[in-house]
Amino acid sequence: MTAYPTGTTGSRLKCLSLAGMLLFFAATAAGGTNPGEAFLYELQRIGADVRHAIDGAAARGSADPAEIAVFEQRMNRLRAAAPGATVGKLLAVERLLGTLRDFAAHPVLARARIPRDAVDMQAVTAARGASCGSALGLVESIPVTVTLSAAGATGSEAWFRFNPASNDRRYRLRTLSAGPDPALEVVADCRRTDVLAANDDELGLDAAVLVTSRGPRPLFVHLTNSAAAGVIELGVEEANGGITGKVVDAVSGQPLPAINVVVYSSYGNYWTSTSTDSSGNYALSLAAGDYYLRTDDENYLPVLYPDVLCDSPLYFYNLSNCDTGAAQLITVSSGSVVTGINIAIPQGRRIEGTVRDSLGHPVSAQVSLYDAVGTFAVSIGSNSYGRYVFTPLPPGTYKAKAEASGFGKQLFNGIDCNGSLKDQCNLASATTIDVQSGDATGVNFALPKLATITGTVHRSGNSLGYFSVYAIDGNGSPIATTYYQTGTSYTLGPLGVGSYYVYAVADGFFPQIFNGIDCGVSCNANIAQATAITITGTDQVATADFDMTALPSVHGHITDAQSGVPQAGVLVIATQNPPSMVYPFGSATSDASGNYTMQVPAGTYYLWAQSADHIDSVYPNIDCEQFGYIYYGAICDVTGAVLLTVAPNQPAPAFDFALKRSSSISGHARVNAGPGSDLPAYASIAIFDGSGSLVASTSTDASGAFQVNDFPAGNYFAYAASNGYAQLLPQLWQQIDCVDPCAATTGTPIALSSGASVSNIDFLLVPRHAIAGRVSDLSDNGIDGALIDLFDAATRAYQGTAVTDAQGYYVAAGGNPSAYLVATDTGGTYLDQVFSNISCPNGSAYFGLCPLAGAAPVLAGSLNIQPVLVNFRLRPGDTVFWSGFEAN
């Protein structure tokens, strides 16, 4: 479908999230962003989102029509703001979106997607890939992935070197990405004096080029990124196959020049395209594979080879309106050309006209066509001159509707739609447009302009940043909204006949309802005092201005309750519902003088001060310690709290806090590897309050030490458990092993007074299912750094190694085998042994220098709760005297 002449982009460019469009238009209106840059940024976002959606559809075997509709809306909105130089990029994203539409129309295409090949992952560095001279290697059938930086940053480009298999071969290079916007340039030498091919956008934001090899010389590929950072895949495949044929008029048989011939893969993805020459002939270079072939022209109906007439082509670069089941796939073999793929195409019909307002001014509108029974067929946008063209259309009868923002909808011929906003259309009343035997011209519209409310929102004439304006009826029901405006001016509408109340909202200010009434939590409560704005007819422009009132500053001072010293770094939040799940409506952190200040919206709030070394408090002095993140809440009773009320004409008093010092618990966790063991345990420590509720947790450091801070006075219980792969038996303080699940309150209570620091809360954890012990010398001094090797007692296969600590203790985790052989390896410093008491004068068993025959097996594994203790006493590593013969 071609909409000609409708401006620079054409009707094929259908389909910005709401947030994205708001940011785009806000940035453009504020003058802070180049409109072209903002457009490209949003188009790149759409391209990345569609790519992710395609991957998801391929994984599921189907696409989500609702998701596609959102993409179409985003593209439609963006198209109206498209700079003329971006037509190619818009078309490329449209092709990518076409693939997603194909998946929705023909799920078999999604399920038949070709699986990815193996991928060569590379990193671009200054020495590899950053320049032509250090180009990365690229070979057929194995794509390369690299991560490129964002546009303009160091690392946003990469170089590759490809060595063709032989002379005069055709190759296709393509990228695959989601987020970046890659471009390709293929050159014959590093001086870039001979550019062989280049492409920026082929399918979505990805690039693809066809290039012919020149003898044995390598090809150099320059890959650049002009969008966000991300992973880009680059692949190359031979394209020595092809398809040739002719396109002719279905009635006259005459050859047709300049007809677009589009190739799709067997899974519905746009592949490439070409045009017929003056004799109607075309030729395509392709890699081996199966392909669909389709024609497209602004005067002829699209045909899917061999003779499948596609429905009204709402979208150009996809097959969703074609019956692929009735089509014929064309199989291309490597090095062969399929000839005689001829297509006869019928002429289409044309409907054209203009869209203007009631005063005759051109309107950029959306014009939609429906078939004779009212089923939607196709829609396009009129250009800045109000002109539109539908072509080519299948012969038949149609009805048309036009709509634009700020106007009522209208059916052809001159039939305004019903309702206060003229948006309720009955297609049965529209005039039929007959194009069975010829084209239809003069299908014109004169849209009725709807009423609006305009005005300014400011504070003493100054801009407020972002603001929103709302129109409600007398019951408080929303009628119209303008979100996130910048500057001071706004326009609200369209609006039908009736009475409205208008209010404005901006961060840092009381909401205000017209005329000049500051609101509290909701302006609906002030409707009775507000001034109504009455709309009596279309094309009316009413005015409502706002001079906003700033919210009062909530402030206070924070000190230590005992010393009176100001406390810095204390977080104060305003919330409506402690101690349950908490949402902060405002927050501030005290400065070096203990002062804080913040603003919160109108309403009633608890103020909650949170400190890392003092007991958290709800104003005025209610202990309410917060364990975890502020959103998780706390365990406390806030009865008696004094609340902050923010309301118009009511200044906020000071809210000062005097915080009590909090307490801490510290200690060590060690592994029980024998009497006197000091082997540090990598453990998680949990602290429970007197009711058995978890209030804090931490992990031990490398030495097994831990400290948990910020507790109110009270009784607590401590619990230690394995943190990682080592299987340590959980333990309650004091050293109560939990072989079976045990309640936290069955441990020994830890009594904390206000501001106290309790230490020596130590754990000695049992390494269950393990082998543990100590390696010492003949004087019972622990040997540091000795290796303890485990071997399967049945197969003698190596199972793992443990290392002794400074006092000679170790733990070796037992695995699947039920019996192990245990041996030491001190690197020759001591005379190694195999348990039990087998000396190794020639070296360790690990290196095969000590026999395992006759060693005593050690039973350890999942049936053991307690560890098996295996100790070694080693002689110094002087092998000359190891037998003791010198004493004789």
Task: Briefly say what this structure is.
The protein is mostly beta strands.
Write the layout of secondary structure elements.
Layout: H1 18-30, H2 35-60, H3 65-79, H4 87-105, H5 107-111, E1 120-121, E2 136-138, E3 144-148, E4 157-162, E5 170-177, E6 182-187, E7 195-199, E8 208-212, E9 219-225, E10 230-238, E11 241-249, E12 260-265, E13 270-275, E14 281-286, E15 289-296, E16 303-304, E17 308-309, E18 330-332, E19 337-338, E20 343-345, E21 349-357, E22 366-371, E23 376-381, E24 387-393, E25 397-403, E26 410-411, E27 415-416, E28 433-434, E29 445-447, E30 451-458, E31 467-472, E32 478-485, E33 489-495, E34 498-506, E35 512-513, E36 517-518, E37 533-535, E38 541-543, E39 546-547, E40 554-560, E41 571-575, E42 586-589, E43 595-598, E44 603-610, E45 617-618, E46 622-623, E47 644-646, E48 657-659, E49 663-671, E50 679-680, E51 683-689, E52 694-699, E53 705-711, E54 714-722, E55 731-732, E56 736-737, E57 750-752, E58 757-758, E59 763-765, E60 770-777, E61 787-792, E62 798-803, E63 809-813, E64 819-825, E65 832-834, E66 838-840, E67 858-859, E68 868-869, E69 872-874
Parallel strand pairs: 1-3, 2-4, 11-19, 11-20, 21-29, 30-38, 30-39, 40-48, 49-58, 49-59, 60-68, 60-69
Antiparallel strand pairs: 3-10, 4-9, 5-8, 5-10, 6-7, 6-9, 11-14, 12-13, 12-15, 15-18, 16-17, 21-24, 22-23, 22-25, 25-26, 25-28, 26-27, 30-33, 31-32, 31-34, 34-35, 34-37, 35-36, 40-43, 41-42, 41-44, 44-45, 44-47, 45-46, 49-50, 49-53, 51-52, 51-54, 54-55, 54-57, 55-56, 60-63, 61-62, 61-64, 64-67, ...
Helix pairs in contact: 1-2, 2-3, 2-4, 3-4
